[in-house]
């Protein structure tokens, strides 16, 4: 996948000119204005030279040869040149083709998330004019069979919207299927021929989404890069989690992938980074004067990252038993949110500036120790006349499994901003509800004039900022106020930004944002390899110790609030979980 000058695509040679500066075939400026009105509505008349990625930066959704996979802005071109460049980008896009191959297309994630996200992008006119989607897996299917399978889940977000049915039909016509083995160069060469045929000689940009078990990542990357890379555009690969199971296996996976791909081509996905409220975390903090001055050990007592699901591992026990909740949720989703929460102000919104700051936070953290962690596993439970299975009742889970389905942990960041502040994480399956949130508990008001009105429990009077990631997205701040009337009674109220009340439109799924960014070459929401190394360094010693010492998890009933040990862990650091026992329980 190295840079090389290739001839322009035959069908468009008359409309292209070679730019030696950018090492790319650029379009002549003929049909730009006709075309611009047809592209993604993100391009408005007032700023129609810019396609926006999720950080508001112009996209480089343009065909470029291997080595030029970065933003033109990085080349330091001036604003007029940029404008020209973006006009050219739009033209180039009309003359190029985007091929997305979903590897593992017969699987759960592809059906549940990837195809619906692609359809939503198509519905919103956010995909380039010439795009196709190929499903690839071993299961033998025809194009029509794939379309029938995915059509059942495509409607999830926008089925009530205008023309959804027509749009769906149009989208499905762009979906194709190729059956092949994951380690067969020959099968990937066949895929390449099919892709070429559909791309019809246009500049081709290719995105491979590895929605497959991790043990076959390298085979697929080898075959795809050798046999099905784009010859004249970019080739990128989205890699699903789990990315290794400890520091060594993760480093080995990166080493193997880098035999075939450059770091710039690898998009390690963490879908929590694509969630609306996680995106809003930085906006809230860096665009509101009132928060940033409070964002440190001086005013924040503790921060909590909480993930709970009201269902077990049903159907995914085979995968889960090899990983457990710490690897499944904490080491990636919750730690990524923590890094965004705690990082210093980045130099800019550029992906590398943000990722540099995240790495610094991760590298300032103390690796987790056993004494700062508790683990649990759900057991069978009868409730309301219904029997709920225990984790080990799953036929794909060994009967004597001690894999944790719940964990709580206290982490610390050894830097000037956060010294001594506990960052608590809690993640569990088969709990009493589904929820993900960030809770920031502030310190007590020193010399509080009203302390008598709160009784002895001053914790009840501390301000708490909550970002509810899901469900029912919201940001609310718990404050103290006076109850109206002649007396002086105090109350706790929420200043509440409830998304469904404020923005009555549906919120895009995380996979939509992430796919759009991968297509745009925007890496901000993907995990860089040094970030991943730093993340694994924090968890690997603990994971090894848990396994070596065969630590048994505390059992908790399916549908409960989890093991009581989580409360003792919090109490050790003078913390109460904000999600239990109070108004938000
Ligand atoms: N499902 C989810 O909610 C989430 C999944 N992920 C990750 O995404 C990836 C895909 O997940 P999911 O769709 O659930 O996975 P699946 O188990 O459904 O696997 C996807 C496809 O891969 C092929 N496959 C499965 N097992 C093997 C095997 N042992 N050897 C070779 N091929 C196999 C199958 O296709 P065929 O037999 O047709 O070749 C299958 O349809 C995984 O890495 C997973 O960890 C991440 C977050 C959430
Ligand atoms: O990555 C994973 O995430 C899902 C939860 O994702 P959500 O977007 O539905 O909150 C989790 O169920 C799964 O175990 C894990 O692998």
Automatic annotation (TrEMBL):
Residue ranges the record marks as coiled coil: none
Annotated keywords: Carbohydrate metabolism, Glucose metabolism, NADP, Oxidoreductase
Domain (Glucose-6-phosphate dehydrogenase NAD-binding): residue spans on this chain: 102-280
Any single GO BP term: pentose-phosphate shunt, oxidative branch
Keyword set includes Oxidoreductase: yes
Pathway involvement of the protein, from the record: Carbohydrate degradation; pentose phosphate pathway; D-ribulose 5-phosphate from D-glucose 6-phosphate (oxidative stage): step 1/3
Descriptive protein name: Glucose-6-phosphate 1-dehydrogenase
Species: Gossypium mustelinum
Lineage per the UniProt record: Eukaryota, Viridiplantae, Streptophyta, Embryophyta, Tracheophyta
